[in-house]
Structure formats: structure tokens, C-alpha cells
Design brief:
By secondary structure, this protein is of the alpha/beta class. The protein is built from eleven helices and 21 strands. The two termini are about 35 Å apart. The protein binds pyridoxal-5'-phosphate. Pyridoxal-5'-phosphate binds next to helix 10. It holds the Pfam family Orn_Arg_deC_N.
């Protein structure tokens, strides 16, 4: 299923550890999303990959941005995004951050509480706010329930407060949970949206848009036990199209839609060239032997999500030869730095030597944002961007890649 030839060519060309992004692959995902959901405005959730080259590229493709802080807003604007295409999608905001965002030209703010609405009315007078409805997060690998979002009745109170304080209450949003694997979660989200939309309409509060949030899945992950995670993507899109139709009907007026994909756009078009630190075979306290494969890159070098998924690994120097089970772990001396909490082994070549390259596929989402600044002295990975517009993955000269060393911020 992993067939990004440009990315594989970039990995093959890399002689040092780095994360590589294939802009053309990201562009193709963006284009296919626009085809699947015609007329829906795509705003990339920057937290999934706050890499300048990726943000600039998506801005050139006409994407807007879901930013979670003034820092992300500044990055989006610096990449050429018009302020009107950027919204402040984080329901958690200090007074100062609301003010900073407003000064940067942002006029659309996510909210989920009366307290936040009051602060927006004070520091971003006249802004537009949309309220995030809580979801259960069921069916997702990362549920995102609890910290953000409110009930339907609370959303109505939030809307009334916004209106009373001179804000424009413009919409509703949801997030079905990241790497959402089911259609049922989307159906449930549309049920809640329809209910609240109707309750607001009865109070004379009309929405101009619904924000469908993130949650669209990556296609190239393995679950924590190493089985392919195959999301029902076509059915998810069908469910979203049907849900939008329902909401348009319930609104009885023009209703725009926004979607905030993060993982879906970048996960499968970023990959890491790492190397083997050591393959060890140790007897443990229970008297049984266990193999551990320590890589140069782990949880603290961006693979934070390795406690819920296994990444597909390729060992280009060991395509043939004997494979066997080993727990995959990162290079730090922290015991949490292991795939699946050290419970589930992957199949690895038994002939690997320290220094052998390993490719960690579908690792383009959240990796740069979860990277520590030097846990145990391991520096952040530099990143490399394969530029778009070159469709020949076979004979690309390595010099066309741009390598940028991550700088502490
Ligand atoms: C408000 C918001 N929108 C979109 C996203 C992106 O989610 P995903 O990567 O699952 O598409 C997130 C992720 O946390 C989020 O918080």
C-alpha cells in the first residue's frame, strides 16, 4: 500500500538521519480531499506538521490554516496565507494570545465556554466565533474528548453570550478524534451538529458555516500489534457528504463547510531515515530471552505516537534474509521510549548491524511537533523536502532536496 516512489527515492538518497517530506504527495492528498468533498474549505491543522516548506506549499495550493497559537498564526502568515484563511482553532487561549491573534489579523476564533467568549469579546471585539461541540472520541486512536468541546445546551448558552457581547456567532465545529477509524463517529457528530443547529435556529441564531475538524486517517499505519490499520476511507467520505446534505437541509439557508485535516494530509508523505543502534537478545527476569531493536529515533525524536501504533519499517540493506520478532525502541535510556510500551514485537531482520539504515514510513504527522529539543542529548532530526513538480522518483539527483537543520525555538 505504501507507494510514494518520490519519498522512497529520497530515503534511498539519504545517507544521514533525517525526516523527509514529499510535497507532491501532500499536494495529491490535498487535491483528492477537494475532489471527495467538493466546495469544502480545507484548513490544514498546522500542529500536524509546522514545517515552513510544507505550510508554504499548502498555502500556494490554496489551503487555509487551523492555528492553535499566535506562533502558528505567524508561521501561516509568513508562509503567505491571507489572515482571512487562518482561524484560531484552539479553545484554550490566554487573554494575551487572543489579543496577539487579533493584532495579527485573525477574526475567527474557536470557543467552547462562556469564559472564553467573554475574553474574546474583550480582546478581539467584533470577532466571529464558532463553538466546538464535544464528541466521545470513540473509534479513534486518539480520542480528544474532554479537554475541548461542550454539550449542545452549553453551545446555545455560548452562542447567546457571544451575541450579547457583540461577537458574530458564526458556526459550530467538532473533532471526531484523531485517526478516526469508523463512520459511526461521523454520523454521531452530524447528529449533534444538526440538533444544535436547529436549537440555535429556533432562537434566531443562524450559522454561516460548520467546521468538521480533523480526524481523517492516515492510510499507512500498523496497529500496536503490527496489523495494518485500514480505515474505511471511502465510506467515511460518503458519510461526511451525506451529513453535510442533512445539515444544509436543516439550516434551510446557505451553509459553508470547513475541514481541518492534519494527519490525513501529511502522515503518509513524510518518512524518517534512521539507523540501527543495536539489536540485542537478553535473558530477562522470567528466564526467557527477548530481542530488542534499538533505533536512532524513538519517542523523544518525534515518534511520540509509537505507544498506540507501530510504524512500517523498511531495512533497505536487509530485504532478504531471516526475520524474527523484536521490540522496537528508541535510543534514549528512558523505558517509555519503546513501541507499544514494550509489549508487542515487530518483525525485524536478524542480521542487522549497528549503523544500518532503517526507514520509518508514514511518519510525517506530528513528528516534527513532538520532537524534544535534545532528550538525553539526541538532537532533533533535520528535515528534507522533496519539492513538488518532479514526478520522476527514479532518477532524481539528491541535490534538489533542501535539508534544514531543526533549530530550537
Ligand atoms: C482543532 C483541531 N483541528 C484539527 C486537528 C487535526 O486532527 P487530525 O490530525 O486528526 O486531522 C486537531 C488535532 O489535534 C485539532 O485539535
Amino acid at each position: 500500500m505504501f507507494d510514494d516512489k518520490r519519498l522512497l527515492a529520497a530515503l534511498a538518497a539519504a545517507s544521514e538521519d533525517q525526516i523527509v517530506f514529499d510535497l507532491q504527495g501532500i499536494g495529491e492528498r490535498h487535491a483528492s480531499l477537494k475532489r471527495e468533498l467538493p466546495g469544502v474549505a480545507v484548513r490544514f491543522a498546522m500542529k500536524a506538521c509546522p514545517v515552513d516548506a510544507v505550510v508554504e506549499f499548502l498555502a500556494r495550493q490554496g489551503a487555509g490554516f487551523d492555528a492553535a497559537s499566535p506562533g502558528e498564526i505567524a508561521t501561516a502568515l509568513g508562509a503567505g496565507a491571507p489572515p482571512g484563511s487562518v482561524h484560531y482553532g484552539n479553545t484554550v487561549k490566554s487573554d494575551q494570545h487572543i489579543l496577539d491573534a487579533f493584532r495579527l489579523g485573525v477574526r475567527d476564533f474557536a470557543t467552547d465556554s462562556v469564559e472564553d467568549v467573554r475574553a474574546i469579546a474583550t480582546h478581539a471585539p467584533g470577532a466571529r466565533v464558532f463553538c466546538r461541540l464535544a464528541t466521545t472520541g470513540n473509534g479513534a486512536l486518539w480520542g480528544l474528548s474532554g479537554k475541548s468541546g461542550c454539550s449542545g445546551p452549553e453551545a446555545v448558552r455560548v452562542a447567546e453570550t457571544a451575541r450579547a457581547m457583540g461577537l458574530r456567532f458564526s458556526g459550530l465545529s467538532v473533532h471526531v478524534g484523531s485517526q478516526q477509524m469508523t463512520t459511526e463517529a461521523w454520523t454521531g457528530a452530524f447528529d449533534s451538529l444538526a440538533e444544535v443547529l436547529i436549537a440555535l435556529k429556533q432562537k434566531g441564531i443562524l450559522l454561516d458555516h460548520v467546521n468538521l475538524g480533523g480526524g481523517l486517517p492516515a492510510l499507512g499505519y500498523l496497529d500496536e500489534q503490527g496489523r495494518p490499520l485500514i480505515p474505511p476511507l471511502d465510506r467515511i467520505f460518503e458519510t461526511i457528504r451525506a451529513g453535510m446534505g442533512r445539515l444544509r437541509q436543516a439550516a434551510g439557508a446557505r451553509l459553508a463547510f470547513v475541514i481541518e485535516p492534519g494527519r490525513y494530509l501529511v502522515a503518509d508523505h513524510g518518512a524518517i531515515r534512521a539507523h540501527v543502534a543495536r539489536l540485542s537478545d537478553r535473558e530477562l527476569l522470567d528466564g526467557r530471552r527477548r530481542r530488542w531493536l534499538y533505533l536512532s529515533c524513538g519517542k523523544f525524536n518525534g515518534l511520540y505516537e509509537m505507544d498506540r501504533i507501530q510504524y512500517r519499517l523498511e531495512f533497505p540493506a536487509h530485504r532478504d534474509g531471516e526475520y524474527g520478532p523484536a521490540i522496537v525502541a528508541g535510543p534514549s535510556c528512558d523505558s517509555d521510549d519503546a513501541a507499544g510500551h514494550g509489549r508487542y514485537p515487530a518483525r525485524v531482520p536478524l542480521g542487522v548491524a549497528s549503523g544500518d539504515p532503517v526507514w520509518i514510513l508514514s511518519s510525517g504527522a506530528y513528528t516534527t511537533s513532538y520532537t524534544t529539543l535534545g532528550f538525553n542529548g539526541f538532537s532533533p532530526l533535520p528535515y528534507t523536502v522533496a519539492p513538488a513538480g518532479d514526478t520522476d522518483g527514479r532518477k532524481r539527483p539528491t541535490r534538489v532536496f533542501t535539508t534544514v537543520t531543526a533549530t530550537p525555538f
